Amino acid sequence: MSKIIAGVMGPGKTATDEEMHLAHEIGKLIAQQGWVLLTGGIKYGVMDAAGLGARESGGTVVGILPGADAAEMSGSVDIPIVTGMLDARNNINVLSSRILFFIGMSPGTASELALALKYGRASILISQKEDVIRAFRYIGRNKIEIAPDVPSAMDIARRIAEKNRA
């Protein structure tokens, strides 16, 4: 059986310190679980923080890069996938991940969450604002998981992974 690829999605340059802290922590736990981390691969915000957390814990990081080169790539990326697709790469991010964690919100993150709901991907929102939760629960007909913190999110992800393995 192939390794589980866990995607961490969230804002780049507009990410808050708290969002980056959460991303760093989930990146560490993904690596400690033996899963592969997938992000948008750029050197800012949630993507960079998750990758750094995974790298610190000896994990593998795949970066699905928006541009036609690796100029904006995070230093934590082990496997860069150069797409030249800009935001259209969000399809790759979502469809390549078995489990997706969403930290913070931006237009790009919202598009990834909408795609995840459309394609039935396991989606876990970590420490999200109530209006975001309410909107995506409505759109997704309650097909999202809500976690107040990183340990709870990882517990949910492990349960999903175990259930899908059976």
Please name the defining characteristics of this protein.
alpha/beta, 166 residues, 45% helix, globular, seven-stranded parallel beta sheet, Rossmann fold
Task: Describe the fold and architecture.
The structure is a single chain. Helix content is 45%, strand content 19%. With 166 residues, the chain is of the alpha/beta class. The protein has a single domain (5-165), classed as Rossmann fold, CATH 3.40.50.450. A seven-stranded parallel β-sheet has the order 4-3-2-1-5-6-7, with helices on both faces. Strand 6 (122-126), helix 5 and strand 7 (145-147) form a beta-alpha-beta unit. Helix 1 runs parallel beside helix 6 (150-165). The longest helix has 16 residues, at 17-32. The protein is globular, with a radius of gyration of 14 Å.
